[in-house]
Amino acid sequence: MRVIFAGTPEFAAVALKALHDAGFEIPLVLTQPDRPAGRGMQMHASAVKQFALQHDIPVAQPVSLRLDGKYPEIAQQAHDLLKATPHDVMVVAAYGLILPLSALEIPRLGCINIHGSLLPRWRGAAPIHRAIESGDSETGITIMQMEQGLDTGPMLAIESMAIAADDSTSSLHDKLAALGGEMIVKALRQLEQSPLPATVQPEQGVTYAAKISKEEAALDFNLSAEVLDRKIRAFNPFPGAHATFNGTIVKIWHAENVTSAVNQSASAVVSGQVLAANAQDGVLVACDGGASVLRLNELQKPGGKRLPAAEFLKGFTIAAGQVFSH
């Protein structure tokens, strides 16, 4: 089976590698244009492009596929390339560009998407982040036949996975990426023999995983420690949860709700107030007006490295009674 692949980040590169290793013929890869990144803002190729070039797979990087969009000539060239490239199916994973109906109709067997949630929950751009942030106990991968709507197509395969209490977006991403690669190989093997059974998504239980903004990562200690723990894990690695301490933005990469294990002082505390800051206790912060306590386990100051709390405190002074703000 000949497979055109469309994807951009590491999540997609894992699936591309799985298809390549399984022996599928991949005549073309679509990925987003190179972007500036890092301190020097040098142009960087996507993870998918890097894998494709390492394995001599042709790559196209149109800025758009919408014939009625801002770049109709580029979109038309992309359509012409797809039509001129012999293939049976297109596999899409975290591509990041809209595939209009005119593009979806080109492959003989249509376009199949690898989506990182248990649809119809968490349609949209950031399903892994939102599942953790919302406290979901499980997530998974849905292999879906694509149509014009946002992640609305019929489901071809679905597998669930528990979300561990310490899962961050980083760790859960890696587990889901591996599962997605396994599932798409299995699905295409089945498709080589006969059409895949399709299940229409239920109308109930639809939620939307909006794109993550940097503004969301500012922690509000008026929330409970449980909610803040989920947010910190959801925003790791991007954009990185943070709070302001004495005018300095401090990133918080790992924390835990320790409300039940901490004996709080009888005196009144305010949200964000430091209850303890030492090598033994770590950094304990009052949340929700003192109703709960969050231990900050891994922190980072501007220009510094991510450090365990005990190491961080050696070079950054935090004292009990001081207050974090957002």
From TrEMBL:
Residues 211-316 form the Formyl transferase C-terminal domain. The keyword Ligase does not apply. One of its GO terms (cellular component) is cytosol. (6S)-5,6,7,8-tetrahydrofolate binds at residues 117-120. This is Methionyl-tRNA formyltransferase. SUPFAM superfamilies: FMT C-terminal domain-like, Formyltransferase. GO terms for molecular function: methionyl-tRNA formyltransferase activity. Belongs to the Fmt family. It comes from Undibacterium piscinae. It catalyses: L-methionyl-tRNA(fMet) + (6R)-10-formyltetrahydrofolate = N-formyl-L-methionyl-tRNA(fMet) + (6S)-5,6,7,8-tetrahydrofolate + H(+). Residues 1-188 form the Formyl transferase N-terminal domain.
